[in-house]
Amino acid sequence: MLDSLIKKSEGESRETAIAALFAMADAHLQMNTPEAGDDYLEGFIDRHPIDPALPQVFAKLDQVYRAERKPPRNELEKWARDATQPRRGIARWYLAQSELRAGRREEAIRQFEQIRRTTPVPAVLAPALLQYARLQIEAGKVNEAQAILGEAGKTNPATQVREQIDFESGRAMYAALKFRDAGDRFETLGNNRSAIAPVALFNASLASLRADDKTKTEREKAELVRRGQLDEAAEVALEQAIIAAGRGEKNAGALLQDFVRRFPSHPRVSEAQIALAEIAYHAAPPKLDEVEKNLAAARAAHPTELAVEHADYLAIWLADARGADSDRVVASARDFLRAHPNSPLVAEVRLKLAESHFRRQDFASAQTEFETLAQENPKSALTEQALFLAAQSAMASMASHSLDHALELLTQVVAMNGEFRWAARNEQAAIERRLGKSQDAQALYDEVLKEDARGAEKREALCGKADIFFEQANASAANLDRAVGIYDQLANEAANQPHWRNQALFKKGVCLEKESDRDGALATFYRILEFNPSPDQPPEFFWFYKAGFNAARLLEEKQKWEAAAAIYEKLVAANGPRSEEANARLGQLRLEHFLWQ
């Protein structure tokens, strides 16, 4: 029957016979008996391995196979082993597509590679190479995709396939951030009278926009309008506004508002409103009422999935900026993670959630979130910071095993050899001190001081090293002298860093007092009280007040009431967090010793 249907002849009789073959396959598909229809198609392929109609016959056979409950593979595998072309290559192509439908991408890639190695690749297989290149672009292997597209172009493909190759080449250039090259390629295709011209012109305008070629973008946007592609022109206008917002350009808000006004019913108007909300949030100071207004407008405008995602994200930061209770911030962050588990913003949200737990002193929950963030994003820029903060959470916990676990986490941070390496070493030293391992702590501090740590990390190590000698003063009086020497060194090196300078001098004063050098201690405390940092630096209050109260105490012990009162007056005048305490002590001192003049 098959031989009578398919006459190996030229002209209308052969074309009619193939049409009849397809009609028979379609009839079996309609009757839900695809298995009965594939025999005819397989028979044709068996008898005519080089027929020009093979691509169409394979395509129909693939349609039949897809309708079967368990698609057979035997015939495709048999033809894929045969040396006859183009049947062999086409069979591998459809095997690859079958593997893709089954989710076996690596097996599909293997089949495509076999096609690619064919010498020469027949022109009928150019679409197979085209599909392979698309897969590589989607996988981020842009250079590989470009190479495959170049090989497809050498097969002398049909005009329509050639245009698709050029289109995918433009996509690969765009993915490789070669926006000018991509724009030129798309522009050429957009000027052709082909089916892909409309989308090519749209892509050309987006590429020109990314290349920051404003003249070309405006020209192509106008051409979209001229051709009646008004929705695409609106899309370009929106992308212009969003990119301007991302770059912090002053006209971004006006561009977004213009888009909202001109295209109130556009499917992506909600994204413009979210972008306006983000601009308001990042203003100095933040315009929180505008943020809330634009978020509400976006949610009411049939928002896109992207708009919903960004609205939920911004709502977390809005609640935090409003000073809402931490429960609300935590709840908003958890809602985001449930609603958008695959969002690229998940890492930032989880970091915010962990920080909120930390601020509430829920260290166990903070540690869990920080560690989850690190596990879910091992290659993220946030991973090192998350592990470091997880370690700090463990250190703040009261659990007996927490310090050991914190050491493990900090060891991971050090191994990453990144920004937090030396801060992690300092934290490890602090843990060793808490565990009574002073020598181990000293070794860690020495490592920080010898290596390429930043100034703040070296100052922390220097201060920690001096603290250890102070803590060991009872074991040897010489340790106090060592501590004083290091505190002096720190105070000199941190002359323009009030926090470290004042801390070093205060601790030096405590050492001198412990050595019974009360005059030396008092003079050291005075150095802190008389320090005048530059006006552009914020005041340092913590060590300033500690030094002031200690100096006043020493003076009271010497019964120098007026000098002590002068110290308290200085503390009151500083208008800092302990001014009221100083004022109360000053009033008591005046009352007790009649210092009213």
Number of strands: 0
Number of H- or I-type helical stretches: 32
Rg over CA atoms, rounded to whole Å, is: 37 Å
Kindly state the percentage of residues in helix.
over 70%
Shape: elongated
Major sheet? none
Work out the strand percent: under 5%
> What are the low-pLDDT stretches, counting only 5+ consecutive residues below 50?
1-12
N- to C-terminal distance: 127 Å
Structural class: mainly alpha
Overall pLDDT score: 90
Layout of secondary structure:
Layout: H1 2-5, H2 12-30, H3 34-47, H4 54-67, H5 74-81, H6 87-101, H7 105-116, H8 126-138, H9 142-153, H10 159-175, H11 179-190, H12 197-210, H13 214-226, H14 230-246, H15 252-262, H16 269-281, H17 288-299, H18 305-321, H19 326-339, H20 346-359, H21 363-376, H22 383-396, H23 402-416, H24 421-434, H25 438-450, H26 455-471, H27 478-493, H28 498-514, H29 518-529, H30 542-557, H31 561-573, H32 579-593
Helix pairs in contact: 2-3, 2-4, 3-4, 4-6, 5-6, 6-7, 8-9, 8-10, 9-10, 10-11, 11-12, 12-13, 12-14, 13-14, 14-15, 14-16, 15-16, 16-17, 16-18, 17-18, 18-19, 19-20, 20-21, 21-22, 22-23, 23-24, 24-25, 24-26, 25-26, 26-27, 26-28, 27-28, 28-29, 28-30, 29-30, 30-31, 31-32
